[in-house]
Amino acid sequence: MDVFVYGTLTDPASVASVVDEFAFGPDAELRGLHRVEGRYPTLAPGGRTAGRILRVDDVAAVDAYEGVEGGLYVRVAVALVGTDETVAVYVGDPSRLDADATWPGARAFAERVRSHLAERDVVVRSL
User: Fold this and answer.
1) Degrees (nearest 5) of the Cα angle 64, 67, 68?
2) pTM for this structure?
3) Which residue from 22, 70, 68, 52 is spatially nearest to 126, judged by alpha carbons?
4) Element (H, E) at 53
C-alpha cells in the first residue's frame, strides 16, 4: 500500500518501529488539505501539505499505529495525480489531538472527512 505521510512516519526510524519492511517513494504534495499541529499532526480542509510516499505491505500495523480502530485517525483514499491509483492518507480527529482545525458538518468525524473529500478536489502529486 502507498501512503502519503506528513508527520512522524516521514522518519525512517519511526517507520521501522511500526513495520518490518518499507520503502520511501518520491517526495509528494497533498493538495486540498493542510497540516495542523496538535499532540500529533493532522490535516484540515484547504491548502497544501508537503510529505512523501511510503510503501508498506502491513496495512494493519500502520492502522494500529495511527489508532484507526479507536477513531484517533481515519484512513482515506486520495487520487494520485497522473495515475489511476490512490494513496492512503491518515487524517486525525482534531478534537482528540488538541489541534485547531474544523471539519464541516455535524456527523461523526470519519463521515465528515469522507464527505469533504468526495465534494472537493483533494489529490496527491509526486514531486
Assistant:
1) 90
2) 0.96
3) 52
4) strand 42-56
Q: Which structural domain, as residue segments, surrounds residue 95?
A: 2-126
**What CA–CA distance (Å, rounded) separates 124 from 99?**
23
d(CA 55, CA 35): 21
Q: Is 47 left (phi over 0), alpha (psi -120 to 50) or beta?
A: left
**CATH no. for residue 50?**
3.10.490.10
Contact 63, 75 (CB under 8 A): yes
pLDDT tens-digit series, residues 45-80:
999 999 999 999 999 999 999 999 999 999 999 999
Could you give the CA distance from residue 75 to residue 57 in angstroms, rounded to a whole number?
A: 15
- Phi/psi class of residue 74: alpha, beta or left (left: φ > 0; alpha: ψ in -120 to 50)? beta
What is the number of domains present in the chain?
Answer: 1
Amino acid at position 95, single letter: S
